[in-house]
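Following up on my earlier thread - several people asked me to post the actual chain instead of describing it. Fair enough. Here it is, all 89 residues.
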Amino acid sequence: LKYLGELMNEHHLVLKDILKITVPLIDNMVLKAIEAGAYGVKIVGSGGGGSIVALSPLERTQNVIDALYDAGAKAAYSVNVDKGARIIY
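Reply from S.P.:
Thanks for posting it. Predicted structure:
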């Protein structure tokens, strides 16, 4: 998960510094989430995003959510990763 987080951070920097498709508010949220313990954070969505995804260890989830709200997020919540599509009989 740490490596995946590093890749997310690198991708966000490409979007921010090279493609210049992020906005200062979200860039600050990304920084604050990382400071709060997220492994990785990046903007998601088309047309400049408007949302971010953060990957963090379970014990830091609430710290990351709190940091996002403190940085101006309108909503922030935890989700769980599912096993994926499957057939249920």
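The chain has a mean pLDDT of 93. That should answer part of your original question.
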